């Protein structure tokens, strides 16, 4: 029967001879014994470099990783490999490129051995120029934690990506790949200029940012860079590349180097180069697993990266507390929250750094939870170490060339930290009791409201006169002392605004949905009115402080210590139609030179004020107890917003209950002999 069937089929299909059933079975058994064919690697260049799965959904041009990172989803490596297999690839360049001013070390070659193109940053072909930097420089494993700084600079200062449209006669085609960063950026091709420029950014960091975040030893950091002449430095192990990148990114925000000045010659007044350095610092930290491996270096890097990011909650690529959370978990993994663990750290320098990092993390976690309405990671029971346990400085054994903080400075530090910790504990309790679904649906319990009101009053009585801006100060202030006191003063007053906003959004539980007033309704209304008065007083106070700092130009040099205060106070004043909002708007506009989102926040604040001035009501549960400005009607406020801003600049503390102060017009050198100064970094994540 089988032979008849085979013969019948062959008659209908000339030339086709089918195997018999037994032969088919033999072929099937043989096929099962053969090894599986090698699966073709179709990953894009970015995923291939990061050693991650390339997940491209049907119908999309990019994979999920390139979409999230806004990378060009290219397949040059795959194309080059295919061409090589077909025997049509161009001749391969030698792996060890000849030495010269534009040569990259072989450690930066791509992980794919068959790349048919050179990897020199300023001599790349148009095809290579479109590759993401992490593909060109091969993060895994070619930039390691021990890579020398001069080689890390090749990545950080490489030309910007996707700056040309590829058309040979297009007006948007730049003569140099650096042209997107201004007319002087092409100097970054020179190795000597790169080193000098990096040193300039480092000095700016230590003058401005280090005074707020004293997490580094300036002398050790400068020596570890390895960029100074050999005779002027001691031999140190290379610095962590992500730490170098983060410090340079901070310096680029505030530097007045001619390259950055030229890059800021655009309508926004912002530097595209500074934005690029922030992105590359973050990408480098991710590639080197800073967020995954607990270590002291990774704690410091995480704490410095966090406030570099966009702090707008609506920005998908901005603030989500990611790096602050990483630092917190690293510290817990290292056991720094235990007193016994700290006693094992014998080196005073290391102990001082890690203790400051712990308290900075602890305080910022509490404040950020209140600012952004999320639960804090830490709780009061999560640590037992004494406050500021770095240890006293021995005056007898102090180095006269590099003196440590004096006992007076130590006591000053202690007072500031104790005040900050006390307020942080209150902020932590506010977050745990207010930002939960039960309060959202039912309202704030009156007992909770009364407890927080009393806690804030107690803090004011115990600490504000010591760490806040003094009344009728007759001396002169420098940059550090001015911003430090303004920050601690504003952080306290912001808490009243946060409490007001919670009451306005959720109401008081005892009043919500009650058919008849509760027996203590008069007491509830009195506490609500108290919160409204304190919030208004605090917002006016912050507006006055912002006016002083703005008129002195200090917010241009401030790493966003007062940012959240200007946002909270300005939004509150705008909702009430108060013209004093002009000071907060001016402060945010000054911040916008270094923080892009601040300009958008200033514009939104102005729109809100104008809408309320025309009669719109922005208040809910707190409407009946909130004082208004007389004259707010359909015709608008009594004073024009621009006029109010000029008035506030002439007399910046007039609306702040006459808390006046005098400051030097030009900020002096911001560090003492050893590079340490009075920190107030506990409000840095208030951005």
Strand content: under 5%
The major β-sheet equals:
none
Uncertain spans = 2-17, 88-129, 163-170, 389-401, 406-411, 630-640, 642-686
Structure class:
mainly alpha
Annotation, overall tally of beta strands: 0
Gyration radius (Cα, Å) is: 31 Å
Distance between the termini: 86 Å
Percent of residues in helices: 40-55%
How many helix segments?
A: 27
Oligomeric state = single chain
- The backbone outline, from C-alpha atoms, is globular
Average predicted local confidence, pLDDT? 76
Q: Which sequence of SSEs, written as H and E, runs from N to C? A: HHHHHHHHHHHHHHHHHHHHHHHHHHH
Domain Zn(2)-C6 fungal-type: 43-75
Keywords: Metal-binding, Nucleus, Transcription, Transcription regulation
GO cellular component, one term: nucleus
GO molecular function, one term: zinc ion binding
Folded structure, characterized:
The protein has 27 helices and no strands. The chain has 687 residues and is mostly helical. Among the domains are: 32 residues, no CATH class; 90 residues, no CATH class; 125 residues, no CATH class; 218 residues, no CATH class. Helix 15 packs antiparallel against helix 16 and helix 23 packs across helix 24.
Descriptive keywords:
XnlR_reg_dom; 51% helix; disordered N terminus; TF_fung; transcription regulation; mainly alpha; transcription; 687 residues; nucleus
